[in-house]
Each structure stands twice: as C-alpha cells, then as structure tokens.
Amino acid sequence: MKLARPPRQASGQSRHQRFAAPHPKLERWRVWLVVGFLLSLFAVLLGRGLYLQAWNEGFLQEQGDARYMRNLKQASNRGMITDRNGEPLAISTPVQSIWASPRGITLLPAGQERPKDWEPKSEKDPVPVSRSELKKLAAALQLPEEELNRKLSVSRKNSRGEEIRPDFLWLRRHMPPNDAKAVMALNVPGVYTQTEYRRYYPAGDVMAHIVGFTDIDGKGQEGFELTREAMLAGKPGSRTVIRDRRGYIVEDVSTVVPAKDGETLQLSIDRKIQYLAYRELKKGIETAGAVAGAAVVLDAKTGEVLALANLPSYNPNSRERVDLARKRNRVLTDIYEPGSTMKPFIVAAGLEQGLIKPSSMIQTSPGQMTIGPATFKDTRNYGTLNPEGILKHSSNVGAAKIGLMMGREELWGYFNNYGFGASTHSGFPGEAFGRVRPWKTWRPIEQATMSFGHGISVSLMQMARGYTVFTNHGEMKPITFTKMVAPSPGKQVVSAQTADLVRNMLESVTQAGGTAARAQIVGFRVGGKTGTARKIVNGQYSREKYEVSFIGFAPVSNPRLIVAVLIDEPSTVGNRYYGGTVSAPVFQEIMSGSLRMLGVPPDAPITNILLPGLDAPELKEET
Fold it and tell me: Among 107, 292, 359, 509, which one is least packed by beta carbons within 10 Å?
C-alpha cells in the first residue's frame, strides 16, 4: 500500500508562511472610534487646561497665594474725643493681642516632649507642642489649661467631610505689653503677637451716655463713638508679605500702605460742669429716694450742650455685660409728660396772639374746672390771677383757660414751632421725637390738659431747647454737642417783647410764694418753672408714681445757662415729691456751681434770697 505524498511546496513560499494563521482584517470604523476617543480625551485635557489657566486663573492664584502670602493689617489709632477745653474724654492706647495658628500646631500626648532635633518632613507637617509648654502658656495667658487646649484643638468639617483647623485664632485680646512680652518669651511654636489699640474713658460713668463706648474690635457701639465712627476710626494700613510655615516673614511683596489715624472730635461738653451735674443729680436722687434721673445744661445763647447726666449709669471701661436700662440716655431717648413746665409756652402763645395781656385777669375760682365728665383742679382757690400769677402759683385752671382761647390748629402750630413732636437734630443716636397728636382729633378736655402738660409727651432735651426762646428774645436755638466758634442762627418763634415778658414772669416762680423758692441762688436772679406729673402705668395715671422736674435759667437780666432736671419716681413718703422740693434744689446746686466756674458776674445783691426752711409747708402743684 502506498502512502499519499503531501503536496509539493510552492516555489518561493517559506515554511513560516505556509503554516502562519490567517491575519484578520481590522475594520475601518473601529480605527476611527479609537482615534476619536483619544482625540476627545486630548480635547478635554486641553479645555481643562485653558479653563484653569485663562478663566479660573484668579482662583488658582488666590489658592496659591493663600499657602504662603499674608495680608497684614496695620491698625489705625482711633481719634481722641475731648471736651471744649481739650481735656480727653476718650483715648486709645496700644496693647498686645496674642493669636495662634491651630492648623500649624499638634498637641503631644501627656509626658511626651518634642525632640530638640525635630524637623518637619513637609511644609504641611504641624509643629508638635508638649503639654508642659501648653501649661506654661495657659498660665502666662491667665487662661484655664482646659480652655486653651479646647481653643488649640478646634476644628470644623468642610463640604467633603474633612476635618479642617483654622489658620488664625485669638487666644487673648488687649493684654498689657509686659504680660504679652512674658507670653512671647516662652517661644511656643505657632503663637504670635499683634499690636492693637484699646479705648479708655478717663471720666468713666460720668461721661458714659455722651461719649459711649467701642467693642473689642474698636467699633463704636453707643454715643458719639457710634455716630462719629467714620471720623474717629480712620483707615487701617496694609502690608502683604510672604511667610514660611512657622509664621516668620520672609519678604515684603507689595508697597506698605500706612494707616491713617482718626480725627479728634471736640465736643461742647465742659468736663467740670459735667462732673458737677452728675454729682448733684446723684445726690438729689438719693435724697428723694428716686429710681432714676436726668439733667442737662445748655449755653443759653448758643444752644451748646455743656453737660448731660443720666442715672443710673455704667462704666464704659468695663467689658462686662451691662443692663440695657443703664445705657439709656434719658435726656434724649425717654419721653414723659412735662406737667407744669409747659405753662410758660401757653402763656407766651396767648400773649403773642393778643388773647391776653400782662395785666389781664383770669378767673380761676373755685379752683377747679369741669369739661364733660372730667374735672381738674388747682391746689387751692387762687381766685383771679394775671399771667404772672398763673405761672407763679402753677394754676392748671388758668393755663387751661388760656389754651382754650386759641383754636386747635393755632395751638398745635405753637407746639410745632416750639419743637415738640420733632427731632432736636442733636446728632445723637436713638433720639425720641415725643408725641403731639394731630389737632383734628383734639377734644376740648385734651386741649385744656395739654395746656398744663398732660396728654403731650416730650424729651427733657426738647424742653430745655424750648426754654432758649425765653433766653434769646423769642429765638429758639438749635441744639449742638460740638463746640462752636459763633452761635448758629435760630428760629424766631415769638416776638422779642413776648419772650422777654415771659422771662421776667418766670422769675416770680423762684420768689417768695412761688413753687420753686429752693431754686434761688445768692447774687443771681433766677427764673424757671416746676413740673409735677403723674406717670402713666398700665394706661392710667398713677397716684403713687411721679416724674418731677424743674427747668430754669440765670441770670435773668442776661441769661447765660439753662439747666433742666428730671427726677423719676421720687418717694411719696411725707408728700415731699413735688418739683419745687425735689428737682429745684438739684437745679440750684448745678446752676450756682456752673455760674462760678464760668465766671459769670452776679446781677443781684447777695441778700437777694429768702429760702424756706426744711420744715416750711410745701407749695404743691395739683396734677
């Protein structure tokens, strides 16, 4: 049997070629798919690069700078506040504040110390701090060790849930320089010092309601520290530097912008008169057993505020939390019913309208008056009184009859011209406008009671400003807390003749038989008016709580000062709670001391006064 012979090899064909597997043909669409995919990836990478380098360059630059660049602020020195004579009322002094970078610190376990040859492995490697160093640092900062440990261990989670520790954290603000020096002498890594300015108030609680105070960051919170913030604050400087991971400055990378200090604010306040007003107001409140009080002293010719006192007060140098009631500037922000201190304005309006004359006789008998269901009365039946007698004896009936002689719109117009129900534009924050209701809603009883100071609300500053009408020949002066070179023009409210007539009538109030004999001053003629008004409690007039006041001026011949005093809720024990008993003596002490300080020449002999004894019967005002 013969075996079949394999086919002969074709000429020119190698053995490898004869036995190689067939090579599959790659289809064209697969080639383009792979190429397209690779080109797409390249396009994405190119687009991302363009986005980061062109459109998002600022963000990346900021992120890069944040790793090593720091913009250091240079604090500006806050402007000083002085009184009219240049005496400092608010000053700033440099102090040191201690801060740390918790991100650059890691606390070692108890008993473990940092090796002396320790070196960071990378820029992000935090510096280890031992517990012994932490204990010394806490003692130097006068902080509990647990609190310092908590501060240096603080962290928060970002949007990705990662723990992030802050780069900056205050450890203690406003340290005395020597104490801060002791802290830095410990050489604790990651702890630094920064110069700041702390505000000090030499007069303390005496000036608190005028000057106000700043917060720990030096921003005004109350008083003129708040209203003149832009003027006093100045502008901080800046300096951009490169820092290494330990916080040391390597180099400056921009021009240093110097800080611009704040301007000095000179007030119209006289510090000596302010101390006097505060002291006498405090004494008067204690004597009367009252809960609070306020007093203001004006220059009778210019409207400048020479003193403004409120009690209770607070210490602006203290950082402790203060009851809001102590911060109230009662002279400007509190409103009250003025009572009989309103009567001079009604008499002036009646004289100006020609409805009465200085010699006019008004019947007040039988000492009371009934309008509809309401009855109001005087302390006794004074019979027939002229305008001066109405003011001297503080007759409610007489004032009401003069008020009712005028039309409602006319009387409202006078209230408006006197500045009631409107701002005094003193520039002080939170100033109250008071309230005078629209004349169209008045009923006869309301028109009558407003004539003796009920049913109308005012601030003590509004009342004091109103009395400038009687000290400036009918011209009401604007109120200002800024020292003036020359008086500003005022508003002519009534004629000079009318104003001068009422000014002389008000002198009788302080004479024998008047309600304010305790306001007399040796060697000076004094004019003014007492007020005793019931407080409104739960919508009704209380028979136990009063607000008593006295507003006056001196010397009568050429008024130099106006002093307004308001005492809140004097004790009613012994029925000695009237304006003439409680407020007039405070006025007398403030006015007499202020006239001496200013060197005002007397306009009366030293035998001009006849003060009643302490046991003399009280001349009352019915309210």
Answer: 359
| Burial environment of residue 27 by CB neighbours within 10 A (0 to 12, 13 to 18, 19 or more) | exposed
The residue from 101, 340, 549, 592 that is catalytic is 340
Quick: pLDDT tens for 532-577.
999 988 888 888 899 999 999 999 999 999 999 999 999 988 778 8
Closest listed residue to residue 562, CA positions, set 606, 521, 517, 594: 594
Q: How far apart are CA 600 and CA 487, in angstroms?
A: 18
User: What are the counts of helices (DSSP H) followed by strands (DSSP E) for the chain?
Assistant: 21, 23
- Does 238 qualify as catalytic in the annotation? no
| DSSP reduced 3-state for 95 | strand
CATH code of the region 72-116+123-266: 3.90.1310.10
Phi, psi values for residue 113, rounded to 5°: -105, 155
3-state SS, one letter per residue, for 568-606 = ECCCCHHHCCCHHHHHHHHHHHHHHHHHHHHCCCCCCCC
pLDDT in tens, 468-498: 999 999 999 999 999 998 888 999 999 999 9
User: In degrees to the nearest 10, what's the CA dihedral of 457, 460, 463, 465?
Assistant: -140
Domain ranges of the chain: 72-116+123-266, 271-316+324-598
The domain 271-316+324-598 having CATH identifier 3.40.710.10: the answer here is yes
- φ/ψ of 301, rounded to 5, equals -95, -30
Nearest to 388 by CA among 473, 503, 558, 554: 503
Backbone angles phi, psi at 151, to 5 degrees: -65, -45
